Amino acid sequence: MTDTKITKEVVASHGLSVEEYQKVLEILGREPNLVELGIFSVMWSEHCSYKSSKVYLKNFPTTAQWVIQGPGENAGVIYIGEGIGVVFKMESHNHPSFIEPYQGAATGVGGILRDIFTMGARPVANLNSLRFGSLEEPKQRYLLNGVVAGIAGYGNCMGIPTVGGEVYFNDCYKGNILVNAMTVGLVRVDKIFKGNASGIGNPVVYVGSKTGRDGIHGATMASAEFGEGSEEKRPTVQVGDPFTEKLLLEACLEVFKTDYVVGIQDMGAAGLTSSSFEMASRAGTGIEMVLDDVPMREEGMTPYEIMLSESQERMLLVAREGTEEKIVEIFKKWDLDAVVVGRVTDDGFMRIKMHGQTVAELPVKPLADGAPLYNRPVKRPEYQTELQTLDLKTIKEPVDYNDVLLKLLDSPTIASKRWIYRQYDHMVRTNTVVLPGSDAAVIRVKGTTKGLAMTTDCNSRYCYLDPYTGGMIAVAEAARNIVCSGGKPMAVTDCLNFGNPEKPEIMWQFQQATLGLSKACSTLDTPVIGGNVSLYNETQGVAIHPTPTVGMVGLLDDVAHHCTSWFKNDGDVIILLGLNREEIGGSEYLKVIHALEKGMPPSLDLTLEKAVQDSCLEGIQKGLIKSAHDCSEGGLAVSLAECCFTAEGHRIGARIELPVDIRKDALLFGESQSRIVVTVSETDLQEFKGIAENCKAPVTVIGRVGGERLSINDLIELPVQEMEKAWSEAIPRRLGV
Amino acid sequence: MKFGIVVFPGSNCDHDCYHVVKNVLGQEAEYIWHKETQINGFDCLILPGGFSYGDYLRTGAIAMFSPVMKEVKEFADEGGLVIGICNGFQILVEAGLLPGVLMRNKDLKFICENRYIRVESNDFPFTRLYKKGEVVRMPIAHADGNYFADDETLKRIQDNGQIIFRYCDADGNITENANPNGSLLNIAGICNEKRNVLGIMPHPERCAEDILGNVDGKRFFESVLSSF
Known about the structure:
The structure holds 2 protein chains of 2 kinds.
Chain A: H1 8-13, H2 18-28, H3 34-43, H4 46-49, H5 54-57, E1 67-69, E2 76-79, E3 84-92, H6 94-99, H7 101-117, E4 122-132, H8 138-158, E5 162-169, E6 178-188, E7 203-208, H9 218-221, H10 242-256, E8 261-266, H11 271-283, E9 286-290, H12 303-308, E10 314-319, H13 324-333, E11 337-345, E12 349-354, E13 357-363, H14 364-368, H15 384-388, H16 401-409, H17 418-421, E14 432-434, E15 441-444, E16 451-457, H18 460-465, H19 467-484, E17 488-497, H20 504-523, E18 528-534, E19 538-539, E20 542-543, E21 547-556, E22 573-577, H21 588-594, H22 606-621, E23 625-630, H23 635-645, E24 654-656, H24 664-669, E25 676-680, H25 685-694, E26 699-705, E27 709-712, E28 716-719, H26 720-735
Parallel strand pairs in A: 4-5, 9-12, 17-18, 24-27
Antiparallel strand pairs in A: 1-2, 2-3, 3-6, 4-6, 7-10, 7-11, 8-10, 9-11, 12-13, 14-15, 15-16, 16-21, 17-21, 19-20, 22-25, 22-26, 23-25, 24-26, 27-28
Chain B: E1 2-7, H1 14-24, E2 28-33, E3 44-47, H2 68-77, E4 81-85, H3 87-94, E5 101-103, E6 111-119, E7 135-142, E8 146-148, H4 151-159, E9 163-168, E10 187-191, E11 197-200, H5 218-226
Parallel strand pairs in B: 1-2, 1-3, 3-4, 4-11
Antiparallel strand pairs in B: 5-8, 6-7, 6-9, 9-10, 10-11
């Protein structure tokens, strides 16, 4: 196989451009053989090299006093005190999940879990951000079913609770669904492990599942648009085995208690290739590997297949010399393979041997760090101005506001996601304090008084209409959700899902959205500590809405002071923090009722945002606030409705009087940012108002909790039960269950 | 009191059970690896929830062959207290320590949520601190909790009072709507004839602390303590 002639066609089929191949020739000073070409191809794929995105990722704020590890490792780490670090990261598994939803989503979960425990951390929570086309289409229902079952199948078996996330439905995702998976783990900060192949002569140990022929060129597949016949790419999707991963997790955590491990990295995208190259590159070393010793699932595998396989549940570990046998023993206890497959060398070369022959000999640094970087052309789309234009005079105000509210509650994007999260074990590990269904999930940190709040957020319609503002809002909303649960926003992981970067319009979206993210992360003091970029989310030339998903973690110093979104007691005072503006552009209301995705998204004033969040957080920490829920899709009316019934078996009404100084539809359903609905008891009202005024947050008393109906001025008057029925049945009804 | 928590490959509620026994109840707890062939000095064994052997083949079907199961059987034969929670329950029925089988849920999906269950018997080491007929709330989290037994077995366990927990509504009514998984007679937990081995699908260890918003499961463990 090493004898295959490298023709133009072979190069092209490996996804390398003519210029990129020229660079390969320059680095090597000769023609590569097929194994070497394969290695270049995956290492320089968009997925592994970030060649189109790197110039913009540099803009992210990545440091803070509490950041222990920023981008560049398997995952980022923040410090929360008492010697404890929180490790978290979000990653996409979009392309595989579209081709094979169950396995694609399952292995997405498996991959992000490995990224976390390879750092030495025990995973304690999973989240996911999912996006599909309309549920009216059978194919989308099939994809939703498969993805949810895959996430459940993997996460439940691993015993890691899936505690939160988000699910959106929009036609723009029908050819490219998004599956972004996030994992949060805990680690002792003096026991953090990194992907480092240091120490000349140290053994390189392969641990975990055997290598098979699955997932070959997965990273390359994920770095191209879908055309017709994408189903034929099914063999590039890996097959997950959560049971083996559970064993791998426990075995790794056991081996981490020793001092045998020098460095470790999971074999994710591009498998043995990326793990070995990246570890050697970080340490400035080389590795000599003998592939004959790699545990294999089937006979007759070639070096090309072994190096490019993306079989799951595998790790590459560099051990202290002389500890090999002890490591093997630990893995054997867990019925896992652990085999020395190579040694660290000092010459900076990756030398790969099989059957006594050298099948590849490549310089590590130029390959791992020398991938071509592109500053791709950027152009504001010509349609953008028209897209942003919305003449409110042409939007007729509804006659029946009750009907509009019920329709919005029935919109799958807004509706209850219970059908989905009840399939996820969200309570295992007995830490989940705020269950799915509130603004951000909260888990406690056993052995301390602390808690962690976590969420994922992005309204991609805003990003489509104005990527800069949309990017800022994704961060602001995530922080707002964290605050509503009682957490102080700490740091961000992002998953940047976009179309084809070779198109200047897509690159413009990417540039603008990342600038927006950067701005909001800086202002809200939530640095980006890691993440992932997924490009080429296009099918037959149609791109998804730009979707820079934000995963955020917040800290509760005292987990007893957590908060949930629903109303608690009759007679409590309902307060709106923030301002209602006449903003309808980009709203779910405009989409569902007027069938328009147009206009400017809501504006975002980060100073106001900060003021609103600060006052809410202080109110929760002081034990004054009894419920807090932010206003997002569907606006104030939907937010108030959700406050009436989010808790299990809990229903409580409210009587609201809003000052009317803007269009009524904007008042009820507009999606102005920086708004939170909170409740306090009458006796705490003055004290809380004082806090809000100190923070300079606009505060308006808008009503009282009580009764069995929600009424808003003379516009809305509905039984809570009727609203809840629409909201809770929207997704199951469309799925026919 | 000393609890042994059996760890199979794929167990994942082992830490949760350990935490409740050790940190909530303040009792001794020790993990027992499934390859152990000798277990001594325990007063109660817990087979925790999880996915032993990945639930491959059939839930509990491979774990029943783990070396430790021979010891668990002997311990039970001698009258020792054995609790199987969720996957532990599935293993106990596969191993023949409890009658019947646990099949795939009627809607074929994994279900995780809080459920009401009624305590059918408190004349029993595991429930003596509950009132007979009391309605409590506990989380379930399983894909295979659909209890089935042939008519004869079902009659026998009914006559013997071996049905300990049944799914019900908030008012204690045993209804079809209150049955999450299709279990016969809404069965959520049963014991053996000698009443020293209990299998329960809901997770008492997940509702034994105030911070988790529900302490209905705490009395389950306290019952065990009080009967020791």
